[in-house]
Amino acid sequence: MKSETPIETIMSKHVIALTLDDDLQYAEKLFKSKRIRHIPVVNSESVIGMLSYSDLLRISYSDLAEDECNVDSIVYNSFTIEQVMTKNVISITSKTTIKEAAEILAKNEFHALPVVDDSILIGIVTTTDLLNYFIKQY
To answer: Where is the chain membrane-spanning (predicted)?
Structure first.
């Protein structure tokens, strides 16, 4: 296993991002249609937060209701992305090693890192990306 391999070799380069102008219903549609679990929130091209599907589940009552769509709409309209997203996001650069990224994720309680070069979001790496990389090594 190469200990100096940069994260840019395994990161997702086609990043789906949200802005503060988007709403939580739109975010949920992206999570479901793109089959993803983490979406960076940007202002221009700079990362200002991270929204995870788990964040939406925490505020949703849909598991308790018969009319899921109606309850989700009410709940999602009660909050903004800014209120729900994680702020003060840890990011890495494209030259950060895979080992360093794995150490950051192992030490913290999140599962995705935005990849930022010169204050611009250029990718995202998740625990799934890292697991797939490590599986290929064997």
So the answer is: none
